[in-house]
């Protein structure tokens, strides 16, 4: 048997030589400095608004405030716990000399993925994924590819595996580049800074029962894991669209429109709860980590993961069925 | 294992319907080892659809394709292994070099060594440019790289769709020599589709003629495509010449054309003799033109024959 690694090697070679990846890297290399500068400006404004550059006294003040609230007997037990955690976090800032309003590069990459997960990264993925099959059609090379002694499903599987490798590469490079670039401005420290997580929602209320602190590096690993998952779902859907539509422009357009629609719908019509079953309204997975309330009722991390999985599996079924059965006409 | 040890390709009852339209219907033909087989038909006759079925790109609605004894639909991998093909244009990856393209296809088949790649590159005479990107290649070079790609895995049957399309006259001649050499020296069977009668005559041992999705006739190329070609005489006075030509024994189908000329059919070796007779009768002959029969002429002849039979 011609070995499967060879097929994957072929696909990766095509991806690299097509220079799409270079475009994606270039976009990242240009946009991350811009985002870094934007973040820098926000930090500067914050410092100005606080009216003092001495952040240590400010935090000490906040800790004292919180301790005062704790002594009050009217505060419910649940709140009490949250306040204690807050104090713990603020104490850490003091002990380790971290200005929470002017964080290091790790904080930047954590915030960056929060913003990038629902639109920016998916768009980059679409740029490289949408033409993975359709370009073989428009280039006519599909005829060479499918007249080899290799089953069609293997050809498509090799493409899919390469695509997932590519997604992993892009997510990793995003993290690395944003760390390296933002570190120039914010400094490279802060991996162990404690971050709040463990929020949950039920009936529209934020449940803080499970809230706890995790070191930032752990939080970042989780965020990027979730981002990888969301991007993989985007890549899987792109694969299907690329199989169904012969032109690269059409498949890229369809995917972009769908992703943007998913983002817009969540913001425009949070009361229409049916849209939570739409795949691209479920991309903002990191919101569940940070406790940002979801716009639509009834969404949770397991729910979103299941929706993404179901859509991905159906897309794969369609993609493989169509690709193995389809007549390659002109 | 194999039903026809010397038959490289056996096609039976091949039919393809798309929607309600029958693109090709009930095709049957065979190709023996080392044979150059022409598949002749006008554009739109179903040639490309047939080729796409032969290489597994399209599933036939009915019928069977056997390659080297293996059924293409049930034993796809074993069957397709013996085929090398160029379907329509030789479209390779333009952003890769010629060698990278070949290496890529080599990774998709068993047993193609780096030496084999060097060998086919030498065979198609692309040594000098093989490490340049395909997008810098001329059409002729792409065609040759396409053939290199098709020959890479030692196929028994080479399928070429309009192989001289778009080549310049020198390229066409080269391609013809190359194909004959493959068939007659290396024993590879070649299936060539074409809409050019002349080309099939020069290249092929046997020919199938396809028209509107059906094979009208299959047979030895010289038997099928020979016959007396029409000769057109420009003469004056027209009426007198017409009278004389009608009366001569070796001349058939005499017909006056619109542009002051007469079309006849006659054996080639009689042309000089007839010319002499015309001159002796005081008729001025300004030109004698021997027409190559066109594909349309042949179809006309054959379909007429069909309706009579």
Summarize the structure in words.
The complex is a heterodimer of chains A (330) and B (309). Chain A is mainly α. Chain A has one domain. Chain A is 69% helix and 4% strand. In chain A, a hairpin with a 2-residue loop joins strand 2 and strand 3. The longest helix of chain A is centred in the middle third of the chain and has 35 residues. Chain A starts with a helix and ends in a 5-residue tail after the last helix. Chain B is built from eleven helices and 14 strands. In chain B, 35% of the residues lie in helices and 29% in strands. In chain B, the strands form three sheets. Chain B has a six-stranded mixed sheet with strand order 6-7-8-3-9-10, sandwiched between helices. Chain B has a four-stranded antiparallel sheet with strand order 2-1-4-5. In chain B, strands 12-13-11-14 form a four-stranded antiparallel sheet, with helices on one face. Chain B folds into two domains: 219 residues, 3-Layer(aba) Sandwich (Rossmann fold), CATH 3.40.50; 63 residues, Alpha-Beta Plaits (2-Layer Sandwich). With 309 residues, chain B is an alpha/beta fold. In chain B, helix 4 crosses helix 5. The chains are: A mainly alpha (330), B alpha/beta (309). At the A-B interface, helix 1 and helix 8 of A face helix 2 and helix 3 of B.
Indicate the percent of residues in helices of chain B.
Answer: 25-40%
In DSSP terms (H or I, runs of 4 or more residues), the helix count of chain B works out at 11
Total individual domains of chain A: 1
Rounded Rg of chain A = 23 Å
**Oligomeric state of the chains in view:** heterodimer
Please summarize the sheet with the most strands of chain A: 2 strands, antiparallel
Global structural class of chain A: mainly alpha
Note the total helix count of chain A.
13
Given as residue ranges, the uncertain stretches of chain A (5+ residues, pLDDT < 50) are none
How much beta of chain B, percentage-wise?
25-35%
Mean pLDDT of chain B: 86
The sequence of SSEs of chain A as H and E is HHHHHHHHHEEEEHHHH
Q: What is the CATH architecture assignment of the largest domain in chain B?
A: 3-Layer(aba) Sandwich
């Amino acid at each position: 048997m011609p070995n499967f690694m060879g097929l994957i090697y072929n696909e990766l070679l095509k991806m690299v030589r097509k220079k799409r990846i270079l475009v994606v890297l270039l976009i990242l290399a240009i946009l991350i400095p811009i985002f870094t500068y934007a973040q820098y400006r926000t930090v500067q404004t914050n410092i100005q608004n606080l009216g003092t550059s001495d952040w240590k006294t400010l935090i000490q003040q906040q800790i004292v405030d919180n301790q005062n609230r704790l002594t009050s007997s009217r505060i419910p037990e649940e709140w009490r716990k949250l306040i204690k955690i807050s104090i713990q976090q603020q104490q850490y800032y003091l002990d380790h000399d971290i200005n929470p309003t002017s964080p290091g590069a790790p904080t930047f990459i954590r915030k960056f993925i929060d913003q990038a997960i629902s639109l920016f990264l998916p768009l980059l993925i679409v740029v490289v994924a949408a033409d993975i099959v359709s370009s073989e059609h428009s280039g006519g090379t599909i005829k060479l590819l499918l007249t080899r002694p290799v089953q069609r499903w293997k050809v498509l599987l090799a493409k899919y595996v390469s695509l997932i490798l590519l997604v992993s590469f892009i997510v990793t490079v995003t993290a690395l580049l944003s760390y390296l670039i933002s570190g120039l401005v914010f400094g490279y420290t802060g991996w162990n800074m404690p971050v709040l997580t463990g929020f949950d929602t039920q009936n529209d209320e934020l449940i803080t029962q499970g809230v706890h602190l995790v070191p930032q590096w752990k939080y970042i690993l989780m965020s990027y894991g979730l981002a990888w998952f969301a991007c993989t779902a985007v890549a899987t859907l792109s694969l299907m669209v690329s199989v169904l539509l012969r032109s690269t422009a059409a498949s890229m357009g369809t995917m972009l429109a769908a992703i943007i629609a998913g983002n817009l719908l969540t913001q425009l019509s949070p009361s229409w709860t049916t849209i939570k079953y739409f795949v691209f309204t479920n991309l903002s997975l990191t919101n569940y980590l940070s406790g940002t309330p979801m716009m639509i009722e009834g969404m949770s991390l397991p729910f979103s993961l299941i929706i993404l999985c179901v859509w991905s599996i159906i897309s794969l079924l369609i993609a493989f069925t169509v690709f193995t059965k389809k007549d390659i006409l002109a | 294992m194999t039903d026809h040890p010397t038959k490289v390709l056996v096609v039976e009852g091949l039919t393809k319907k798309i929607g309600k339209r029958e693109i090709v219907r009930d095709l049957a033909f065979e190709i023996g080892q080392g044979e150059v087989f022409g598949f002749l038909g006008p554009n739109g006759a179903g040639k490309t659809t047939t080729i796409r079925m032969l290489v597994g790109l399209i599933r036939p609605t009915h019928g069977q394709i056997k390659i080297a004894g293996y059924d293409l639909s049930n034993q796809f991998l074993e069957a397709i292994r013996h085929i090398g093909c160029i379907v329509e244009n030789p479209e390779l990856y333009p952003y890769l070099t010629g060698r990278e393209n070949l290496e890529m296809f080599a990774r998709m088949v068993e047993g193609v060594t780096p030496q084999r790649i060097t060998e086919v590159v030498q065979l198609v005479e692309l040594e000098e440019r093989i490490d340049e990107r395909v997008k810098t290649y001329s059409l002729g070079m792409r065609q040759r790289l396409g053939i290199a790609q098709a020959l890479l895995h030692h196929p028994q049957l080479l399928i070429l769709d309009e192989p001289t399309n778009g080549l310049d006259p020198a390229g066409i001649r080269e391609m013809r020599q190359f194909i004959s050499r493959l068939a007659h020296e290396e024993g590879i069977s070649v299936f060539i589709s074409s809409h050019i009668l002349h080309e099939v005559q020069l290249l092929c041992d046997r020919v199938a003629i396809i028209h509107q999705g059906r094979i009208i006739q299959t047979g030895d190329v010289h038997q099928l495509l020979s016959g007396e070609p029409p000769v057109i005489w420009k003469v004056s006075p027209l009426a007198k010449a017409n009278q004389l030509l009608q009366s001569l024994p070796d001349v058939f189908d005499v017909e006056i054309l619109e542009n002051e000329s007469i079309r006849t059919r006659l054996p080639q070796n009689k042309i000089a003799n007839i010319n002499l007779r015309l001159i002796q009768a005081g008729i001025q002959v300004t030109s004698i033109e021997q027409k190559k029969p066109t594909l349309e002429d042949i179809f006309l002849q054959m379909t007429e024959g069909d309706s009579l039979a």
